[in-house]
Amino acid sequence: PCVRRGASRFSTLPRRPMGLFSSDPATHLPPGEGVRTDGTPFEIPAGLDAVATLVVLTFEDSVAPLSGQWARLGERIAEDNAGLAVLELIVFPPRMKMLGDMALLGLRARAKADGSAHRLAVVFDKAKAVRKALGIQSASSVTVLLVRPDGEIVWRGDGEIDLHEIESLEPQVQALLKEA
User: Fold this and answer.
1) For residue 77, what are the CA distances in angstroms to 15, 74, 80, 88?
2) Fewer CB near the last or first residue (10 Å), C or N of the chain?
3) How far apart are CA 123 and CA 48, in angstroms?
4) Stretch 39-52: mean pLDDT, rounded?
């Protein structure tokens, strides 16, 4: 397909007709390219090599504390469920990519301070396109997705962590891991 200059890679995905945001969100994590905090390239879904990955998706720095809480919860669940990986995925605007390593300085400092470097990655794309592809209405929240290695979404959560979400997530993780 023809992609106009400056268009998001997510805008080339085939999808059902919908308004700006759909109540019927995507079934797969859209493909994307980015970088881990150590500078190594990262691809979605190719970089999802675990049996199950809990993707903690954010668009704004203001939700970093909540993103970290979800990621730490995922790591605690992973302690009892070998095969589960946790990925904190931050969407940066494409213009940040031209800054190269400078775009990641703040993120690297945060990762060093809280020990989260092993789970952090950045995708450079238009936040609105990513949000639209996934049916996410607010950029100022955290979206959590449990995905298979091919990017298929099997569980969704968002916002603050609550007991209901934890109770629904753990059985989904265990079921996904049993399939492998």
Assistant:
1) 33, 5, 6, 15
2) N
3) 14
4) 87
